[in-house]
Amino acid sequence: MALHGEGAGSKKFAVVLLVFQILFIVLFGIFGKYHLDAAPPKQAETTTITSSGVRLAASTSKAPYEPDHAVRDYYPMFQDVHVMMFIGFGYLMTFLRKYGYSSLSINFLLAAFVIQWGTLMRGLLHLHDWQFEINMTTLLTSDFTAACILISFGAVLGKLSPLQYVIMAFIEVAVFSVNEWVGINYLKTLDVGGSIFVHVFGAYFGLAMSRVLYRWEYSMGDFNTLKFNTKTTDLFSMIGTIFLWMFWPSFNSAMAAEELQQRAVINTYFCLASCCVATFICSIFFHHGKISMELIQNATLAGGVAIGSTADMMVHPYGALIIGFGAGVLSCAGFCFINNVLERRLKVHDTCGVNNLHGMPGVLAAVISAIVCAFASESLYGSSLYKVFPSMDPDNGGRSPMYQALYQLSALGMTLATALISGAITGFILRLKFLDPLPGPLLFDDAAYFALPDQVTHDQEKHIRNQLEGSARDQYEFSAALPKNDRLLTH
Amino acid sequence: MALHGEGAGSKKFAVVLLVFQILFIVLFGIFGKYHLDAAPPKQAETTTITSSGVRLAASTSKAPYEPDHAVRDYYPMFQDVHVMMFIGFGYLMTFLRKYGYSSLSINFLLAAFVIQWGTLMRGLLHLHDWQFEINMTTLLTSDFTAACILISFGAVLGKLSPLQYVIMAFIEVAVFSVNEWVGINYLKTLDVGGSIFVHVFGAYFGLAMSRVLYRWEYSMGDFNTLKFNTKTTDLFSMIGTIFLWMFWPSFNSAMAAEELQQRAVINTYFCLASCCVATFICSIFFHHGKISMELIQNATLAGGVAIGSTADMMVHPYGALIIGFGAGVLSCAGFCFINNVLERRLKVHDTCGVNNLHGMPGVLAAVISAIVCAFASESLYGSSLYKVFPSMDPDNGGRSPMYQALYQLSALGMTLATALISGAITGFILRLKFLDPLPGPLLFDDAAYFALPDQVTHDQEKHIRNQLEGSARDQYEFSAALPKNDRLLTH
Amino acid sequence: MALHGEGAGSKKFAVVLLVFQILFIVLFGIFGKYHLDAAPPKQAETTTITSSGVRLAASTSKAPYEPDHAVRDYYPMFQDVHVMMFIGFGYLMTFLRKYGYSSLSINFLLAAFVIQWGTLMRGLLHLHDWQFEINMTTLLTSDFTAACILISFGAVLGKLSPLQYVIMAFIEVAVFSVNEWVGINYLKTLDVGGSIFVHVFGAYFGLAMSRVLYRWEYSMGDFNTLKFNTKTTDLFSMIGTIFLWMFWPSFNSAMAAEELQQRAVINTYFCLASCCVATFICSIFFHHGKISMELIQNATLAGGVAIGSTADMMVHPYGALIIGFGAGVLSCAGFCFINNVLERRLKVHDTCGVNNLHGMPGVLAAVISAIVCAFASESLYGSSLYKVFPSMDPDNGGRSPMYQALYQLSALGMTLATALISGAITGFILRLKFLDPLPGPLLFDDAAYFALPDQVTHDQEKHIRNQLEGSARDQYEFSAALPKNDRLLTH
Predict the structure, then answer these.
(1) In chain A, which residues have their Cβ closer than 8 Å to the Cβ of C239?
(2) Best A95, A269, A383 residue to mutate vs chain C (most C CBs within 10 Å)
(3) Can you list the alpha helix ranges (DSSP code H) found in B130-161?
(4) What's the CA gap between C273 and C321, in Å, rounded?
(5) What pTM was estimated for this model as a whole?
(6) Residues B116-129: pLDDT tens digits?
(7) Structural domains in chain A?
């Protein structure tokens, strides 16, 4: 009976997932095709006819078997970003004592779901005669989309049913893609590391959703004890932290123009280093003179977010260090002081503290980008000025630095508004009984939807091992070698 | 006494290993040398004289210090594959409650053993005047060989002695290399991701061996409780799963022609995404409405196997999604339904379920490759037709698509037959008393060959910490700071 | 009170860290700037005027937007090295039962601290008109510096306060940088994998420091039980081991000349494979016929150190196998026999056995490099002789092979002397009461400085879950589905 009831809830999840997957296959079949470089030469020609003169030139000048460099140029950084999504976010969220299976598996599912749906949404926004092309950069941008959804996932981690998570991802990807599309194509926002469109959007979409989904249980005095970590879960969580920290330079430079990539790598590298140091300092001052693993696991990463919009600009190495330090302080302050205010006063329950790791540092990144843009000049960027700031190119509108700064801020405003509104609406949708909200006793508990490992008691095992003795009898050499049974069972 | 007995068994293992290692050093000394690109220019010339005209041209046209691109072109994907072998397979197998040391360490040993022996076997099959050359692709293909042996390892995991594992690896590498050599050079099979020669061979070699090594203990009602996982071991196992899943596009495209690599990456990426979604759906339907970690850990990877033989062909993105979905369903069905039949009826005990993850999806891959080859045409592949299907090139035999399809199936048949027969023979060899079969009580137990950590009881530690108090006396500032002893001991 | 006392110690640590971070920002601001390739074209020109004719030529011949290849050529290997520092060293050290938080977090902090301070030290030694340039190779060399400090960290792991660790890193980076600078620029030592300047220096600096910091507690009979590992911590530790093992070829070839990289990769790859096999053999012979995880975790890596100075030379594949085997035997002997002598007789307590993994294999590497240099000849290296051995180039001093061999040994001697003396002095400095030496009862204990997770008892949790039942009442579908409370609590 219980099993049936359970089954009822999860079967609905499976059916919805199946419907989505079929939809994806159909849409890929109708609209998706390989990009020129991944398609055979012949098909390439037919493509070029339908595409811009520039590409036509490019492709005709291409010898039939000229090696394609997309893999060589993008693949290593793509794989770093891929690791950030699946190992980074996945393990970062395993700190919850009883929710490790769910954190890791649902993270895995949502990312695999989003890289399909995100590719489709972006493709549908960039159709050329009813077709969109897929190449290495498609995979990269789809992983970026996954990052945004996984950030929101962190805000509601442990509090939704699998079905609710999937519906959340489906809606969020659609809104995210449109918001980013407007911000990049119309506002011509510069956001190489996605701090505005990925981090700010993901964080505030998730927080708005979490606010609407607030439940009376969260206000119970000892509710957060359900979130408690253990030494083992903290070590797993650090796997996620460290991979995110190490590969963040790839995240911030993968989409940069080739000659700006090195600067983006250098800036992010030093920014993260000083952010890590800042976190240890703040942990001592803000956390009763102790080093807090929660801060190490999260605040050390804030630097990557804070420099995300300006990584490829001339912030100079010392500028990167200052940004990283500031981000670390801001993030630690968020965890130690602001978190409680959000939860108690504003009734926003933020499981992973995404406001501190992605939200506020993302806003900081946007503000920094406005300042850096405002000071852009020929004397500073030389002949690369229009490479870094295409919108300032006279042939391309010729914006003034100050205008670009205002556009950066307007992109932040648009993203905040879109995220908060669409997040709130998504929250109301997720409150539908139909979507199987989680019963209170199953909050932060893998038992809700996962098959848990059966326990084997010491006696059971002793019984089995004893039975097995029989088989050892005829093996003289070994029967002597058998450790005592208790020895076998102590570990 | 017990120790002596134990020692006797393991010393034999060490001696055999030593003999093999000395043999490898001697064979490398006699036959192995650096490839042209890794050797000094002077040596290069002497090489070119003895090698084909093409290479001669290549090398003479090479300036003395012209940078060598082998590292740049192959190294990143090689390292991904390397991670799949050592972290991927290694951690995937740590789910066994009491066999973590062995899974990880023996996986490590076998892979390190095989990359030497595999290099030798392949080299001996490709001798030019009694020498074989070593370069980046040698390392890649040696890692592929390791994959095959580690798959077979998964079928017998927990049930053999270290000595038996090593003998298994030694025999299997030899047979694997010959089978692959015949399949590629004579049947001209297309198998860019090694689904036929690596996955099918490894899986069915292991299963045939496991059948011959079947022991009465396996039929004990509660035998499989020895295999039980825990929450912690499952989180370790997921490290392996996710790294395998993320880097599989490298596995399927590393050996592809440079201009086909991007397509291989794209196909594998989307194939795995839909396979992951399919696994969650099937877990609910096949596993009492619950999400099963065993399925997440394994079935999500089946897509990489299923598209392995056709990753660089025109399966189209939607085709990749369909293949991935099918592979996920097939693999889940294997774990939930076919596994029991194999174990109960056919007495094939498959510890890691390699039949479901590598065996059946590999067969599926071969069938798909036959279909895709059968539909190959100028109109679809344009001028790249002979690049993708070299055997269809008139200068190279000029096979018809249908013929190529039949050759794909014949390669599958040959591989299945070779794997089953050689696996069974290996099984009979491993039954020799001389090879120290594992006594029953030590099945799935690290205690058999590993030094286990000593336990420290609460009292022991309290005693030590108390002794240490003494040293703190003269440190006034700190003696105040000492946490209560119990506090120290609770964690 | 206790908290205050504690705070006092750690606040000092935070303040010192803050002072260093501010210092770094100021020094970067004054002396640091982007390298040509990462700076805008205009700035580039101004640079070239002030730099060598060679660079001038290079830069003027560079089109304004010509893509910069530094990222493509160095980034993948840099990221591998990055993983070795943060995941590799970090997790390798988590084997200590109660020191996992500290091992991982302090490793993280020290590395982030050193990549800033190391960049500065190296920069200050290479100033061009009071400025130093930062590019991809800067990041690589800074990570190499981190490796050296993390090796010393391993020798004193668990025995110092965070403040002492930071002071150690600050001093060691300064001495390391000068020693390496002299060795490379004046002695023209060849050490592509840093075995002499990184591994030997780090190991013996740490051991000398550990000797001076020896405390009576270490001689307590059961003292080392505080170091005991558990099955879980050993599996975490293996994450570090395997990533170090896999990516070591990147460590040994990243700084090699482009056309020598492939040889460096091949040599390191095979050297590590045979070292891994040797470790299993020696474990059986040296460790009572059992496989020891401590040996697997450490000795398998000795091959990477032993071939570090000659990885890009003509040692031949079989030579690499022999070096690896020898390194494995040496390292295992160190752990099983020499360690005790060091600790009992010489009062050198080596927590991670850095003498066995980095010290002795590093000395071996230097000796091997002397031998390989002594046999360098035109007939063996052809026209690449001066590429591999620049100091033998007549235009560059024209050293004889035998001379180069002597210089290799003199570099070893200088490094040993510098490391031992500066390590000992550092040890005396760290004995200052001001630096908060660790009270005895807090040795090897996270409790000293880390906030430990609060425990939740079975009853506490049961109480919370019961309260939550209330919220489930109105959800009919689910209340049926609720697992029994005990079920919830068993896992």
Answers:
(1) 239
(2) A269
(3) 136-156
(4) 8
(5) 0.93
(6) 999 999 999 999 99
(7) 78-433 (1.10.3430.10)
